[in-house]
Every structure is written in structure tokens, then in C-alpha cells.
Amino acid sequence: MTSLQTGASQLDPAEKGLYRLGGLAALAIAVAYLLIIGLYATVGAPPASGEAWLHYLVGKTSAWWAIIGVSVLTNFLFVPVALALYFALRQINRFAMLIGVAFVGLSVTLELAVNWAGYAALVTLSSDFAGASEGQRAILIGAASYPAAVIASPLALVYAVGTSRSGFCSLGRSC
To answer: Could you read off the pLDDT of 79-128 as tens digits, one per residue?
Structure first.
């Protein structure tokens, strides 16, 4: 028996289930990202300003709700992946693994709270925009300006990429 087989046979059955769940979650993330890419291809590149978003989303809200839903799902799927990596690698460096899991959790939380909440706000506002009067349109444009500015901000990209990268670098990927 090889050392790999010996190590695998000595695993706690609960950990085997967690590894399987983490692996399945990672595969689901890959499939979901392919779906998201396809959805983005159908709707085209989004604009930057609030008013442009409201005009852009006309007739595209179903696709954007699908993008948001699948993206939120992928965020939640990162949790079992991070936990499986933690349990698999904790004996190498427990502290680094805890930091990695914390960064993945932070990344998921920030992306759900800022990015996807902003996209959802824009899609919701756009549904009211088409039938609104001129005065109501001005109010909706003002309301859409904030989430559009947050999404377009370079800071959103920095924390999304930075916390994810820091987490997975700590979880054992070479960076």
C-alpha cells in the first residue's frame, strides 16, 4: 500500500464526507462560472453610470437575475471548499489555514454585501424605470447612481480579488 492510500484510509469518516463535499462544491463552482460567462455573453458588457445601467437593463433583467443568483451560489460554495482545504492541510500549518479560511469568509461576505447587493439594487430599480414618469425617472437615476458607483469603483475589485487571493494563498495554493 502506498503512503497516499495509507493516509486516505486513516481519515476520519466525517472528514472524508467534507472532502467529498468540498470537491463537489469546487466542481459546481467551475460549472457555475461557465454558466455565468455564457450569461454575460448574452447581455454584453455593463455600463458604469447609474442612468446607463437603467437603460442597459431594459429587457435583460431575467439574465441579470440569473447572473446574480448563480454568482451568489458560487460565493456560498466557496465555504465548503475552504473548509475542506482547511481540514486537509491543517496539520501542515494550522495558523495559516485559519487565516486562509478567514480571508475566504471575508471575501464571500464582502462580495455578497457590496457587489451582489449593488447589482440586485440596480436590477430592481430598472424594473421601475421603464414605466416611470419623468420626475420618477430622475429619482430612480439618483438612486441607481450609488450602487453603480460602488460597483464601478476600483476598491470593489481590490477587496474582491485581494481577499480571495490572500485566502487561497494561505490555503495552500502557490501564489
So the answer is: 999 999 999 888 888 898 999 899 899 889 988 998 899 999 999 999 98
**Cell numbers at 27, concatenated:** 466542481
**Can you tell me the distance from the alpha carbon of 54 to that of 77, in angstroms, rounded to the nearest whole number?**
30
Helices then strands (H, E): number in the chain?
8, 0
- Of residues 96, 76, 74, the one with CA closest to residue 86: 96
Q: Chain centroid to CA 123: how far?
A: 17
Burial class (CB in 10 A: 0-12, 13-18, 19+), 66: middle
d(CA 172, CA 38): 30
Q: For residue 130, which of 44, 45, 54 has the smallest C-alpha distance?
A: 54
Handedness of CA 32, 38, 42, 47 (dihedral sign): positive
Q: Evaluate whether 156 touches 150 at the Cβ level (below 8 Å).
A: yes
DSSP-derived secondary structure letter, 101: H
